[in-house]
Each structure stands twice: as C-alpha cells, then as structure tokens.
Amino acid sequence: MNIIELTDISRVYTNGEHEQRALDHVDLALEEGKFIVVLGPSGAGKSTLLNLLGGLDSPTSGTIRVNGKDISTLSESELADYRAETVGFVFQSYNLIPTLTVLENVALVKEIAKNALSSHEMLRAVGLEDHIHNFPSELSGGEQQRVSIARALAKNPKILLCDEPTGALDSQTGVMVLKLLLSMARDMKKTIIIVTHNQNIAGMADVVVKVKNGRIVSCTEQPNPLSAEEVDW
User: Fold this and answer.
1) Spatial separation of the C-alpha atoms in residues 88 and 153, rounded to whole Å
2) Average pLDDT for 5-28
3) What pTM was estimated for this model as a whole?
4) E strands, 115-172, where?
5) 208: Cβ–Cβ under 8 A, 6 or more apart, which residues?
6) Is the pLDDT of residue 54 over 90?
7) Of 25, 28, 65, 114, whose Cβ has the fewest other Cβ atoms within 10 Å?
8) What is the CATH T-level fold of the domain 32-60+75-230, as seen in this structure?
9) Is 147:139 a contact under the CB 8 Å cutoff?
10) Residue scoring higher pLDDT (1 or 63)
11) pLDDT of residue 200
C-alpha cells in the first residue's frame, strides 16, 4: 500500500524576475513501512521534497497524497494538524530547548500529538534512560541526536522525515542512530525517509530515490539491503 503519492509536483520560488524551480514535475509513490533513502547533491531538491512531505511548504502545482489524504490543498491550520498527527522530524540540528531537561524536551510532544507515546519508553528505546534529568548542554552530539529521535518517535507518527540525521555524527554514533531508525521501520512499521548526500547509507535502504536538478532520476527497490554494521563509513 502506498502511503505517499506525488503527482506532477513542482515547487517554484520567485525573486523578482528570477525563477528557481526546486522541484520540476515530480512523480513518486512510496510504500508504507519502508526504509527510504533520498540521495542527491546540494541544490538537487531533496530538502524541498522533505519540506513538502512534512507540510512545511506547499507545492506550486501538483498533488501530494499522504495516507490517502490530499495535503497539497490544506489550509495552514489543517497543515498544523497534519504535522502534529502524521509526521515526525529529525534534523541534523537537534532543535532541543536548552532550558528543558531531556525528559521535558521529549514530553513536549504530548501538547500537540493526540496519540503520543510514553516519553520514558522512547528514551529507553534510544538508550538514554539514565539521562532523563540532564540538560542538552550536558550531552554529547550523538546523545542530543538520540533525544531528537526519541521526541520524534514519541509523537507516534506514521512517517518519520530525517534530514541528514547522521551528518554531524562520528561513525560509531552514526551506526547507532541508523540502527535505531532501521528498527523503527522493521519493528514499528514506520515509514522512514532519510534525505542525505551520503551514498553509503543508501545500501541500507529498501528503496533508493535519486534526485537531480529538481527531478526524480530513479526510484529503485533493493531486495537485500545491508545492515547498519555493513555500511562503509
């Protein structure tokens, strides 16, 4: 079953008379519960694609259906509901609130998500149960990234959107984060979409989407994806 369907999607930004076509007539269908890697160089349109799927931006033309719902025509308030109920975000920058503890940062999602999961359980899942009372400044970069993943998981989203989630991590922590994300797809049946320029990560994916110059160059299923340990860093 397809959880995401993009039909003839374009996103054009204008600055005076200058026009930048970030996405150019894109068609894409992605199945539920898959670990998906979107590859492409800087400026290819990867982040624009992620922002559209996350309801952070709207297309200039075309249709985006997520879980059977057309999100390309939603109002701002409807998009806010969509973001709260359907998608979670993991960014390269952790976006943690420095004055809140680890537990409080994760528990924030209960204010916006109707079916939020236990903050304690999600922090246990990412191996941070012993750090719930620490502040972000007391954690390493890898630990802060795991807090951001726990927060995204606690929303209990159908889709988790990850923008370069291992870009600032060392190889050991990167493997840990990738294993966690992969287990979410395998064990929790979440649809995980990772946007990256790191081609090595693509070896783990069920599906690899390649983007160039605002277009989908290819969308390839991989029958025998690698484990996180087998990824060459």
Assistant:
1) 7
2) 92
3) 0.90
4) 159-163
5) 36, 37, 39, 202, 218, 219, 220, 222
6) yes
7) 114
8) Rossmann fold (3.40.50)
9) yes
10) 63
11) 87
DSSP element (H, E) containing 43: none
What number is the average pLDDT over the span 132-139? 96
| Band of pLDDT at residue 233, cut at 50, 70 and 90 | low
Using CA atoms, how far residue 214 sits from 9, 49, 106, 164, in Å, is 10, 9, 34, 18
How far is 209 from 39, CA to CA, in rounded Å?
Answer: 6
Distance separating the N- and C-terminal Cα atoms of the chain: 33
Beta strands in 58-104 (DSSP E): 61-66, 69-70, 87-91
pLDDT of 185 strictly over 70: yes
Structure tokens at 25: 């007539």
For residue 173 the two structure tokens come to 């922590």
Three-state secondary-structure class, residue 215: strand
Which secondary structure element, helix H or strand E, spans residue 221, and what is its range? strand 215-221
Q: Which residues contact 163 (CB under 8 A, 6 or more apart)?
A: 47, 50, 89, 90, 91, 92, 195
Structure tokens at 131: 């750090």
Residue showing tokens 């029958």:
223
Alpha carbon distance 69, 162 (integer Å): 21
Q: List, edge to edge, every strand of the sheet that includes 69-70.
A: 18-31, 2-15, 61-66, 69-70
CB within 8 Å of 144: residues ≥ 6 apart? 94, 96, 136
Per-residue pLDDT tens digits for 210-227: 999 999 999 999 999 988
